[in-house]
Write a structure and sequence with these properties.
Elements: E1 3-8, H1 12-24, E2 30-36, H2 51-54, E3 73-77, E4 81-85, E5 90-93, E6 98-100, E7 103-106, E8 110-112, E9 125-127, H3 131-144, E10 149-153, H4 157-169, E11 172-176, H5 189-200, E12 205-207, E13 210-217, E14 227-233, E15 238-243, E16 245-248, E17 252-254, H6 257-261, E18 272-274, E19 285-287, E20 292-294, E21 297-298, H7 302-315, E22 333-337, E23 340-346, E24 356-362, E25 367-373, E26 380-386, H8 392-395, H9 416-419, E27 433-435, E28 440-441, H10 442-450, H11 456-463, H12 473-482, H13 499-509, H14 514-521, H15 530-540, H16 557-561, E29 564-565, E30 571-573, H17 584-596, E31 600-603, E32 609-614, H18 619-628, E33 641-646, H19 649-652, H20 660-671, E34 680-685, E35 699-703, E36 708-712, E37 724-730, H21 732-749, H22 756-762, H23 766-775, H24 782-795, H25 799-804, H26 807-810, E38 828-832, E39 835-839
Parallel strand pairs: 1-2, 1-7, 2-3, 7-19, 9-16, 10-11, 10-16, 11-12, 18-20, 33-34, 34-35
Antiparallel strand pairs: 4-5, 5-6, 8-17, 13-14, 14-15, 20-21, 22-23, 23-26, 24-25, 25-26, 27-28, 29-30, 30-32, 31-32, 35-36, 36-37, 38-39
Helix pairs in contact: 1-7, 13-15, 21-23, 21-24
Pfam families: Fer2_BFD (PF04324), NIR_SIR (PF01077), NIR_SIR_ferr (PF03460), Pyr_redox_2 (PF07992), Rubredoxin_C (PF18267)
Cofactor: [4Fe-4S] cluster; FAD; [2Fe-2S] cluster; siroheme
GO molecular function, one term: metal ion binding
């Protein structure tokens, strides 16, 4: 008999519940209906600020946001549940439709609280909670124009994030806080003071100890022309800010109105009252996430929400965990606000009687660290970090435990961040949480390692650790190392060095041959791993032809013949078409080549034309005709730049905001032929409609009204990823320089066959670190990286043309050395549905298409 489960709300916690339910009871006869009020399916509300600049809703959607992989799940987005009929066990939608349930799960979340200050309901006032909220704020900011101000009421975590969003939109932000410091819940007085200074340094005005706020229309009768915000401090002084928008971010309230209407018990301070099983006063109704008051307490963080979701998912079956209960919540906080590290955990304010506070306040490095200890200085009770949260990750799991060091001061002194503050992962007990988002302990990770998970991706797949905020990834690597799983960086058995280390060796020593490199830094004669890797490094560090001298023998088959080998031993030829542009004469030449050599023709997804079925001895003949027509190698065979896809932009499109074709041509011409650890694909979209799918590329560029947004780390393939915003509203010159630095930093530091997305994921500090290197030149490498790229651009030579001009290289393009004119008799074709297809000897013919 089918169990009908209805879930009201489709946020992060609801998504976790349905995903856990689906995997836990994969063979159970379930019918799950998820009803979401917003038009979007579940998205990353914690990362809401990432929407600013990109303005692409789908980029925030959670993996399989609509649960399309599970046919038992139906997602109804854009629908509001208006009532619950508990006696009939059904819910009513705003459309008048009724849906029956056996079990009802309330995941209605919370709403932003708006204090009843005068003028709070004027049109210029907003909250910071949903994608629609951000769209409304953006529209108001665009109407106001450059130089306008925005006011954020509330100086907590979300308030500072909202201020950062206003800054990215182009407003001058003001943060208003009634307390004497920012983030008063998470940090103490001195930490809050330093945080305020660091935030002010980033162009945000901070108003503290504000006791009264009045909002009035500035122009017109209703505030459409902006508002005037008058702030009164505890000293009686007033400040007036003329603002385009006001954003309220002073906390949330649980959405319990549906439960209230159904007669379910509520907690004294709001929220749907549940027991530790997350069951409400009706045994057929559960509540999870921010709407649930578990034993009277609401938790406004995603970690406790996930925990409640997993409790209910376990409770709905009769297998292991059927008696699961909510055992408490980790309320620790670690985040980076506008580039400023902030973290707190445990008794951050030192409220435990008799506790000791150990503080390091460093005005030179502008960092603040505090540990709260028991009265005997042996047990860790809490901590606060501002400016540098390095020690946090290893200290937080020791909360309530005896410290491993007899000198607690050594745990937070300068330099502690680099070495874990004298605390190693080996000192953590098995029940210490490594991933607080998903409640994964060190013991769980150790069990997974014993079960065969030998790297971070494998640990993520089997434990969920590191799949939410990702801050625990360095600690996961340390657990692997502590368990004796050596994370070798050796390229292969012939080189102890990693690819990035060999890159530096080649750069510094000037060695230009594989034999010279292996003779001095390696051993043996090499293999199919190190030879092409070194060949790529040599090609990346000079403009020498890949078939010059000894290098020719290092190449894999594709690079050896400058073409992609196909299944029957023939090759494909892909001429470059920068930006997808091609002349009529060039198209005619391509058609004539295809006709004369009887080639199969296909338009690729990268705006190029692929010619299939060329025999090796035909390649130079085909290249000659293409080169004479003004075309060149498209490097479809190399670990190098493939294409720069583009839409038509302002050239033709009425929505275009910049010349996307011109930029795509410029980028493809600049980076053509650049050898890299893996292939590189780029895209340039002329507006936010994203017709070039730029966020699915290694490097993506999207036009804005004032310039370009630059994204990195996207790709399709077996593990699709959306690219992340690196920088916004760039000029042409800034865009080129930032791409130069990014791509060359990748070429310099990535490992063998590591594409940009996994490279970025493995990069310590991720996108934030890359932004510091590329945009802020934190490593002082900008000039060197740009110089290397200029050397590549100046030294570029078309590889096909170079072969045609060199008789020795031309001699390689034969099927048989002793019979240069003889074709390979094993290469055969047949025709299927009017198309030429390869036939493999000894294999049955390909079936006809239907």
């Amino acid at each position: 008999m089918t169990e009908h489960i209805v879930v009201v709300g489709h946020g992060m916690v609801s998504h976790r519940f349905v995903s856990t339910l689906g995997s836990r009871y994969a063979d159970t006869d379930l019918a799950v209906t998820v009803i979401g009020e917003e038009p979007d399916p579940a998205y990353d509300r914690v990362g809401l600020s990432a929407y600013v600049g990109a303005w692409e809703r789908a980029a925030l959607h959670l993996e399989d946001a609509r649960h399309s992989a599970d046919p038992r799940v139906t997602v109804r987005s854009g629908h509001l549940v208006t009532a619950i009929d508990r006696s009939a066990r059904q819910v009513e939608l705003d459309s008048g439709e009724f849906i029956s349930y056996d079990t009802l799960v309330l995941a209605t979340g919370s709403r932003a609280f708006v204090p009843p200050v005068p003028g709070h309901d004027l049109p210029g006032c907003h909250v910071y909670r949903t994608l629609d909220d951000l769209d409304a704020i953006r529209a108001a900011a665009e109407t106001a124009g450059p130089g306008a101000h925005g006011v954020v009421i509330g100086g907590g975590l979300l308030g500072i994030e909202a201020a950062n969003a206003l800054s990215l939109i182009g407003l001058t932000p003001h943060v208003v806080e009634r307390n004497d410091r920012l983030m008063p819940v998470q940090v103490d007085g001195r930490g809050g003071a330093l945080l305020g200074d660091l935030i002010r340094d980033r162009g945000i005005e901070v108003h503290l100890s504000v006791t009264d706020t009045v909002i009035e229309p500035r122009d017109g009768a209703d505030g459409d022309g902006g508002v005037r915000v008058t702030l009164t401090g505890d000293d009686g002084e007033t400040t007036a800010v003329e603002a385009a928008v006001v954003v309220f971010s002073v906390g949330v309230r649980p959405r319990d109105e549906l439960a209230r209407g159904a007669g379910l018990a509520l907690a004294e301070r709001g929220g749907v009252l549940t027991d530790r099983a997350c069951r409400t006063s009706d045994p057929h109704v559960f509540a999870i996430g921010e709407c649930a008051a578990i034993e009277g307490t609401c938790y406004g963080l995603v970690g406790p929400g996930y925990a409640s979701a997993e409790v209910v998912a376990a409770r709905l079956g009769d297998g292991p965990g059927a008696d699961a209960e909510f055992t408490g919540a980790d309320l620790a906080t670690k985040l980076k606000l506008m580039g400023v590290d902030v973290a707190s955990f445990g008794d951050a304010h030192g409220r435990t009687p008799g506790c000791l506070e150990l503080v390091v306040d460093d005005p030179v490095t502008r960092t603040y660290s505090k540990l709260v200890l028991s009265d005997d200085a042996l047990t860790l009770l809490g901590g606060v970090f501002v400016g540098d949260a390095g020690p946090y990750q290893l200290l937080k799991p020791l909360l309530g435990r005896t410290l491993p060091s007899s000198n607690p001061l050594s745990l937070i002194t300068p330099g502690a961040a680099a070495d874990g503050g004298g605390v190693g992962v080996e000192s953590l007990p098995d029940d210490a949480q490594i991933c607080s988002c998903n409640a994964v302990t060190k013991g769980t990770l150790r069990d997974a390692i014993c079960g065969g998970a030998c790297d971070v991706p494998a640990l993520k797949a089997c434990t969920r650790a590191g799949t939410s905020c990702g801050s625990c990834l360095p600690l996961m690597r340390q657990v692997l190392e502590a368990e004796g799983v050596e994370q070798s960086t050796a390229l292969c058995e012939h080189f102890d060095q990693s690819r990035s280390e060999l890159f530096e060796i080649v750069t510094v020593t000037g060695i230009r041959t594989f034999s010279g490199l292996i003779g001095r830094f390696g051993r043996g004669s090499g293999c199919d791993i190190c030879k092409p890797t070194v060949a790529s490094i040599l090609a990346s560090t000079s403009s020498d032809h890949v078939l010059d001298g000894e290098q020719a023998s290092l190449q894999d088959t594709n690079d050896h013949f400058l073409a992609n080998i196909q299944k029957n031993g023939t090759y494909s030829v892909v001429p470059r078409m920068p930006g997808g542009e091609v002349t009529a004469d060039q198209l005619i030449v391509i058609g004539e080549i295809a006709r004369d050599h009887d080639l199969y023709v296909k338009v690729t997804g990268g705006q190029r034309i692929d010619l299939f079925g060329a025999r090796v001895e035909e390649l130079p003949q085909i290249w000659r005709r293409l080169v004479d027509a003004g075309m060149e190698s498209g490097h479809a065979y190399g670990k190098s730049l493939r294409t720069v896809k583009s839409c038509v932009g302002t050239s033709w499109c009425r929505y275009g905001q910049q010349d996307s074709v011109g930029m795509a041509v410029l980028l493809e011409t600049r980076y053509r032929g650049l050898r890299a650890p893996h292939k590189i694909k780029m895209g340039v979209s002329g507006c936010a409609r994203e017709c070039a799918e730029a966020r699915g590329k290694d490097v993506g560029v999207i036009a804005t009204e004032t310039g370009w947004n630059l994204y990195v780390g996207g790709n399709g393939g077996a593990t699709p990823r959306h690219a992340q915003l690196l920088a916004g509203d760039l000029t042409d010159d800034q865009l080129i320089r930032y791409i130069d630095r990014t791509v060359m930093f990748y070429v310099r530091t990535a490992e063998r066959l590591q594409r940009i997305a996994p490279w970025l994921e493995s990069l310590e500090g991720g996108i934030d670190h890359l932004r510091e290197v590329v945009c802020e030149d934190s490593l002082g490498l900008a000039a060197e990286l740009e110089g290397r790229m200029e050397s590549h651009v100046e030294g570029y030579v078309d590889e096909w043309a170079a072969v045609l001009d060199d008789p020795d290289k031309l001699g390689r393009f034969v099927s048989f050395i002793n019979a240069p004119e003889a074709p390979d008799p094993t290469v055969q074709f047949e025709e299927r549905d009017g198309r030429k297809v390869p036939v493999l000897l000894g294999s049955p013919s390909m079936p006809a298409r239907v």
